[in-house]
Specification:
By secondary structure, the chain is mainly α. The protein contains four helices and no strands.
Length: 68
């Protein structure tokens, strides 16, 4: 899967939590990524964040940082 698709999907997950406070949103996004994303997908999005994380929304960036 391309990195741009992973960024899009992660940001879509983040949009689901937009009505939550930041901490709840970050927790929810991270939990979703842990439970439902294949380990290869998680590794790729973490690598993308380490390379600068272009395109990731702020709460998604924080959630991905918790995966590393």
């Amino acid at each position: 899967m391309s990195t741009s698709n992973l960024v899009y999907m992660a940001n879509q997950i983040g949009k689901f939590f937009v009505s939550e406070d930041r901490d709840t949103a970050v927790d929810g996004i991270a939990e979703h990524l842990r439970l439902f994303w294949d380990p290869r997908m998680r590794s790729e999005i973490v690598a993308h964040l380490r390379a600068g994380g272009e395109g990731l929304d702020p709460p998604v960036r924080a959630a991905v940082a918790r995966l590393s």
